[in-house]
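Table S2 (text version). Query chain:
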Amino acid sequence: MLKEKKLFLFDIDGTIAVGDELLPGTRELLEHITGIGGKALYITNNSTKSRKDYVKKFKKWDLAVPEEHFVTAAYAACLYLKERYDGKKLFVLGTRSFVQELKGWGLRVTEEAEPDTECVVVGYDNELTYEKLEKACELLFREKIDYVATNPDLCCPAPFGFIPDCGAICNMLYDAAGRRPEYIGKPNRKIVDICLKQTGFTSAETLVVGDRLYTDIACGIEAGVETCVLLTGEAKQEDLADTPYKPTYCFENVEQLYRAVIL
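Corresponding structure-token output:
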């Protein structure tokens, strides 16, 4: 039941915000969560921004959110890469912010197709150039090189509709080089597991809230927690009939979710 929830894991784009606009009801819901002794964490697959960038973005909405409350796909990728590729060279196709975040973890990062590169890392890159794609393809044609990506989302909500996300970039690379990456972000349950470990809340007290069935809702299902889809982003009401990723709850928007939570 919604009244039992204390840990709310929110997607951002298309869920509580679109572009630079915070959606109605979000502020009230966050205040309610704090009031009941709960926590709100943000589990976005958007790897264009570091956690520090998100702290600044939320400040513009007059929301003071500490850095550790953002468990992004980029952050999860940093944990994963530090564990497996510490000291090894990584080619990164991503934004300058993503590159700097990886370097901040002490990882060896290159943006060139260097001969001793051991892994190709792809993120959602709104600074994408054809030159980056060409270098990634050159590396992916090498037999013994690993390949990981932050998230499989095909599109990202924009004020006018949608724009290509990391999954779409990886599909281009697949069409050219015939390689699929290991995705670190949602629907990988790793992000939910990080949040549970960080906060100490139980699975029964946790709710994943998002706008995508195949990432947000699938992630919650994989992690064994209840889920809520909001129809302010990619998912539409008609999608619920055929999806294998059935959410526990469905609301038109975050404002409706807030009303249901306080009932």
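Notes on Table S2: Residues 73-183 form a domain with the Rossmann fold fold (CATH 3.40.50.1000). Residues 66 and 78 are 18 Å apart (CA to CA).
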